[in-house]
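Run: sequence + NAP -> complex structure.
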Amino acid sequence: MTDAADPHFKRVALIGLGLIGGSLGHAMRRGKLAGHIAGYARSDATRKRAMEIGFVDSVHSSAADAVKDADLVILCTPVGSVGEVAAEIEPVLKKGAILTDVGSVKVAIFRDVGPHVPDGVHFIPGHPIAGTEESGPDAGFAELFDDRWCILTPLPGVDRDAVARLTAFWEACGSRVDFMEPKHHDLVLAITSHLPHLIAYNIVGTADDMETVTRSEVIKYSAGGFRDFTRLAASDPTMWRDVCLSNKDAILEMLGRFSEDLAALQRLIRWGDGDGLFELFTRTRAIRRSIIDAGQENPAPNFGRNPTHAADDKKDQ
Ligand code: NAP
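>> structure
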């Protein structure tokens, strides 16, 4: 289905010009995927910076202006803001255009954007499973999506040609494309992305609140493991507030399971159950091997960090 589809669009509107919008702009430039890229951001500073960097051809101070005449519209603002943006662009969305997004949750996107999609516009929500802890227009880069999955969640009955074109577009941006039902997407991402971020926010917050261990000790000895959590815990607060509020049920379900498993681990330690601990740690080690084998992680030890420092890190553990 995707072989014949054209990944090129005459006019693309990028609504939101931060890490993901910027990276899409760069990836489109790299693959020559757009005749014209029109960008919208809230602030004058972001719009100006996007033009300076050059990943858009024009910037607009209203989302509706950017969307006029676009064949592909990609919503790249935080999940909590897309409903309002969709209401603004509704009157100018072109018949036959594809409307998509990059939000980290999908049920809430259908709820908030769905009612604003005019007849004749193909609404195909999406989520690239790629990111960093950086935000803003300077954070974007063309390779962000290379070999990373992009999950599309079209509802049954959506135009097949439009789905094929959007698939071809993401593939041309470097991604591999998969399809999921929106509710299932939110459950899968709750365990693979949302829960790990919440655990990281929590552990870093706990360390920051400690009184008997000083903040300078936490930082000095962070190579013992703590610093690997700090990368996730440095992620954008607006984005993660919105993810928590809009994927509440799935996140609470996963947090419940996590708490039960943590209590079980606590019991293994209290009872001195070395075999139980060893069995769990062996099982979890195999998961990392599977992720590396699937090409979703750098196989170099210590996340590919400088080997000299890696030796130091081992000493610290
Ligand atoms: P970002 O770097 O913070 O950029 C957000 C952009 O949206 C900026 O251009 C910002 O404009 C604009 N914006 C923010 N709040 C807005 C509002 N209330 N109304 C209108 N525009 C607003 O964010 P990002 O990391 O690219 O994330 C964007 C989307 O991608 C989110 O939905 C997120 O769930 C999803 N996503 C993120 C990642 C990740 O790792 N970061 C990965 C996959 C998917 P100003 O700069 O002018 O404020």
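>> summary
The pocket of NAP is lined by residues 16-21, 41-43, 46, 76-79, 81, 85, 102-104, 128, 131, 135-136, 139, 236, 239 (CB under 6 Å). The chain has 13 helices and nine strands.
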